[in-house]
């Protein structure tokens, strides 16, 4: 299966509670890295990024419940070899999502009906998985801020629905971590976009092997 944005109506149908047996009281939707730098005209643009943001906005505005809504953001200050002047686009990348720049902000096409928590990751190192992030809570010292896993468990979550950018990197790594940590894990395929078809195929196989469901 090659991931392509599909009709939102189809997705909400796929997600109907009867088919999914998803309990909104125990579910969180993780909106991964829908930031300006990962959208068209950004420093590390993913084709279809803005359309993905629009679809997430449309989908989460639907009357069905997606449970708690959580965002993650790549949030770099000095991430070492994650940045390179001569990036290989696998382990090193052009500078992106630098704290204090517009590229690090959530893209304007993303509008969420509710936001229960925001997590930031990667200040001083590469961080592909949202589970490496900490809660953005200025009232707490940075080292005291809970990580995503702790926050989800504290809120009684056992199922995560994952969407955002890019499918083949941060979405996949977030989903693999979620599964490893014991969450029922579903990737909302039509609400993602990939950097390349080749890495998307590899990611799909990894997700399937790990027991992650891809819609
Ligand atoms: Zn990064």
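-> sequence recovered:
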């Amino acid at each position: 299966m090659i991931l392509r944005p599909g009709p939102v109506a189809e997705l909400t149908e796929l997600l109907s509670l009867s088919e999914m047996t998803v309990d909104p009281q125990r579910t969180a939707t993780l909106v991964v890295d829908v930031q300006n730098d990962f959208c068209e005209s950004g420093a590390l643009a993913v084709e279809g990024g803005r359309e993905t943001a629009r679809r997430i906005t449309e989908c989460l505005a639907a009357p069905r419940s997606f449970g708690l809504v959580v965002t993650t953001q790549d949030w770099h200050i000095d991430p070492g070899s994650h940045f390179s002047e001569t990036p290989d686009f696998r382990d090193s990348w052009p500078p992106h999502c630098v704290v204090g720049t517009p590229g690090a902000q959530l893209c304007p096409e993303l509008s969420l009906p509710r936001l229960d928590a925001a997590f930031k990751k990667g200040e001083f190192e590469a961080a592909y998985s949202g589970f490496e992030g900490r809660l953005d809570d200025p009232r707490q010292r940075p080292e005291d801020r809970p990580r995503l896993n702790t926050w989800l468990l504290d809120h009684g979550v056992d199922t995560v629905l994952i969407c955002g950018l890019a499918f083949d990197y941060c979405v996949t790594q977030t989903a693999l971590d979620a599964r490893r940590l014991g969450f029922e894990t579903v990737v909302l395929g039509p609400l993602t976009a990939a950097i390349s078809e080749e890495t998307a195929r590899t990611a799909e196989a990894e997700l399937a092997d790990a027991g992650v469901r891809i819609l």
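The domain at 24-214 is CATH 3.40.50.850 (Rossmann fold).
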